[in-house]
Amino acid sequence: MLGNAILVAVREIRRSALRSLLTMLGIVIGVAAVIVMVTIGSGATVMVTDEIEKLGGNLLIVAPGQRPGPGRAAVAAAAFEWADAQAIAGEIPSAAVVAPAASRSAVVIHGGENWNSTITGTVNEYLQARNWSLREGRVFTQGELRSGKAVCIIGNTVREQLFGGRSAVNARIRVGRLSCQVVGALAAKGQSMIGLDQDDLVLVPLRMFQRRIAGSQDVASIYVAVGPEVSTEPVLQAITALMHERRRIGAGEDNDFFVMDMEEVARTVAGAAQIMTALLGAVAAVSLLVGGVGIMNIMLVSVAQRTREIGIRLSIGALQRDILVQFLVEAVVISSLGGLLGIAVGLLGSALLAGSLSLPFIPDVRVVGLAFLFSAGVGVAFGYLPARRAAGLDPIAALRLE
Q1: How far apart are CA 14 and CA 203, in angstroms?
Q2: Is the pTM of this model over 0.85?
Q3: What mean pLDDT comes out for the span 283-290?
Q4: Cross-strand pairs, 352
């Protein structure tokens, strides 16, 4: 019986192909919109999480001042010292990597090429904390770090601007007024999630930076990385307690430093992106309800146009249940075909949009399946009333009406 009802439904859809296609359009748009919104949202979540991971896994950043935010007054804060980083490394066993750093903008020159970049004074552990690898060359030697020798490691953007496709190792560049020997070049990382070029930097030994560029012993920030199996929360608390002691901050006094947990930032950003994706998907799902209203409207018109057919079938022995199933199946077939078309359009649109936005294309099979089931459910929900009306027609009255 059900198979025969499906065949009849397909025949009716083919007989009124244009009307059926227009009826499906609402379902197609609804399913496609849900898939596009959720897929793009998932891709954006993954991209943001990956970008934060590029900053360093299980990374804490300790900086002077108060964390930026609304309602927080500015607090004058002294910079850190090298001894603060040494204290963290010596007194907090869970701090696997500790890297003090300070930065300043300067022009770098090689031959006839020049480029304005960020000069960062730091130590080799900075590369470990930031998950950075070398493209060529080597890191600083302990002698270079202790003496503050004029050597540098350049980022990929600086290498391309000054050297093009040539090797930069052992070449000399000017960093501000200083002549500096390039001992290594970093592998490319690309832009950060806020659009900053992570490869536009020059690393120099921290002592060289302090003595010959900054002219002070200040350390602007301390990067602390913990092991992959270690929670950052107890390390954050230990750093906070240590800094209270070293900076003589009493109970009840405002901190003149803050510790940023990149793992917490990643969770917060990913959670916000997931909520936004769910909201966009819910908004897009409203168009499925609009498509369901269209199905109900067309099915009611179909009942009115096929009154004679319904009357004849009832008069020759068809049961009301047969008529009910027939029109309900037609509504479900229309909505299901619309769902399949919507899936195809949604996946194609998601792939194209993800490519244009440089986002990863991550289709979710569960969302695709749920969208299809929801489209079929819309057919049942909005097709029931017209089917019930068709089944309830009096055969004599239906024939007389015709």
Answers
A1: 70
A2: no
A3: 72
A4: none
